[in-house]
Amino acid sequence: xxxxxxxxxxxxxxxxxxxxxxxxxxxxxxxxxxxxxxxxxxxxxxxxxxxxxxxxxxxxxxxxxxxxxxxxxxxxxxxxxxxxxxxxxxxxxxxxxxxxxxxxxxxxxxxxxxxxxxxxxxxxxxxxxxxxxxxxxxxxxxxxxxxxxxxxxxxxxxxxxxxxxxxxxxxxxxxxxxxxxxxxxxxxxxxxxxxxxxxxxxxxxxxxxxxxxxxxxxxxxxxxxxxxxxxxxxxxxxxxxxxxxxxxxxxxxxxxxxxxxxxxxxxxxxxxxxxxxxxxxxxxxxxxxxxxxxxxxxxxxxxxxxxxxxxxxxxxxxxxxxxxxxxxxxxxxxxxxxxxxxxxxxxxxxxxxxxxxxxxxxxxxxxxxxxxxxxxxxxxxxxxxxxxxxxxxxxxxxxxxxxxxxxxxxxxxxxxxxxxxxxxxxxxxxxxxxxxxxxx
Length: 440
What we know:
By secondary structure, this protein is an alpha/beta fold.
């Protein structure tokens, strides 16, 4: 007898844990929200089961991810949603299970930023992964129209956009649709967080949040605006250090050197003396992320004009708007387009430090009522119940794409080998990193 509620397996590439960001947050929210709209959820945790937040265990059944046992682990599931490299395992081990592949994070494009330090192996792996997933998945999730257009080209090249698909589904929404990050309908009660981890706020101090420093961001216009700030209330810019040892930290390290050379970098409990400073935070416990955003006066996160920036919908801005925190962003990409369309935030040209400084002064010293109206309009579009509707439609009637066997194909991924000099330098960097770890 058919069950009234479909059972959905969730398999993210990142473990769910008390402190997490990005994909971990996304799958925590999926585990919370899907039961509210009529689904039972099984979360396959790729890490320690003890790390899973209790709120997830309360809304979903948690099972350990085990390569080679996936058919058994999802035997009672009707449909799966998976993301990242682990989606390969699901598609290969359980080819009969209707699967939505989550392309929210364009990791192939992100990892291009690390080719100089990591070589061509990530490209080979990521490209082969996308070829496998986009040739075998049944439904695809993306974050914005910019992403959707990009992925439609990839899907066309693999035969997934074909005469049968378009005849039955002219806009291909049944193959790939927008399922961005959502916002809760009501935020938890505000519990101040920064007072616990920073020195006491100086008189009149304005706190600005940048967030994590990844290679596609461009913090220099913000740092230059801070360095030039010499009047009015003091400013503190907060950046967040990524705790994952495997994540390249080149931009963070360069930013620290630049700020130290100008007397902006401050650590420890002692308050800064000057009009501006930069301080570092660790990842915030997941249940406190909105507390952090309510504790700051604005978020400013500028980026370079790159393919990654064009294709990303910045989750940090969406969370900030939901928390009532004004935002300043760089032109380019889905979120900046939405900010400009709704007036929910200020958008500045790439690399323009004077424009950033002007925007900071405008937000911190002027009325933000117009920004708040725009933010309310934009956030209303991103309630979880609304953004999950395309995924819910697929999960209510999970079927495999009946045309993929006739049209889809998987070309080989080609790339030259890394030269000998690069391989030696990479081995030396690894040995030095190991030595530093032993001496720490």
